[in-house]
Amino acid sequence: MLVTSRLTYRYGEGGPTFRFPDLRVGVSEPALLLGPSGSGKSTWLHLLAGILTPESGSMELAGTDYAQLGGAALDRFRGQQIGLVLQRPYFLEALTVRENLAIARRTAGLPADATIIHSTLEQLGIDRYADRRPTQLSVGEQQRVMIARALVNQPKLILADEPTSALDKVNAQRVSDLLRSRAAELGAVLVVVTHDERLRADFTQVVELRPVTDQATARVDP
Ligand SMILES: Nc1ncnc2c1ncn2[C@@H]1O[C@H](COP(=O)(O)OP(=O)(O)OP(=O)(O)O)[C@@H](O)[C@H]1O
């Protein structure tokens, strides 16, 4: 369960304060955070990912308020508990797909477990690309490798930032299906941030940010 309360963030002194809606997201209740450009979606995702530190508020995952963590403790928590999927793939290009996943595990202080790496690639239908470099794959295949890397540490929270915006309808649906089915299998909470309205029907909770600059408010669909 991910539970956030009264999260706020401000870019520098004098900048607008973003006040984010409280979230309560359980396993098998994936949440979609929608909002137009500039409404603060990426800011929100970066807070949830522990990349930005909130000005105030709490974020609790598996009993830990990680808004209170910093330094090495936050790095370890993020590496082991949170899997991040971004809009555009980025990889260590000199390394193979398999090696990219191994690095993701080692960076989080986990052993590079060949069995887990293989089964993660297999579940995403990309085990045959394990020894290729990511640049030798299509954009859609790279997207699946990025999802595999986000899942390889078996995180408790999967966050995805605009994972489908650059994809056509068929591939967008495939990515949405993969994220939801893998999250359910791992017993992980899934939160997707997007302006892609096509995803709305796939998600249990939809939270909308309004395009306001000094205060972000939301409507929560039951
Ligand atoms: N580093 C920064 N310094 C100051 N202001 C910033 C910074 N990053 C973002 N902002 C501002 O905060 C607001 C929200 O940005 P954010 O990227 O979170 O929006 P978004 O909803 O994700 O937009 P998009 O869909 O276009 O990516 C924008 O007005 C943006 O200009």
TrEMBL record:
Its EC number is 3.6.3.-. Gene3D superfamilies: P-loop containing nucleotide triphosphate hydrolases (3.40.50.300). Residues 2-220 form the ABC transporter domain. It comes from Neolewinella maritima. Pfam families: ABC_tran. The keyword Transferase does not apply. SUPFAM superfamilies: P-loop containing nucleoside triphosphate hydrolases (SSF52540). The keyword Aminoacyl-tRNA synthetase does not apply. GO terms for molecular function: ATP binding; hydrolase activity. It is an enzyme of class 3 (hydrolase). Keywords: ATP-binding, Hydrolase, Lipoprotein, Nucleotide-binding. This is Lipoprotein-releasing system ATP-binding protein LolD.
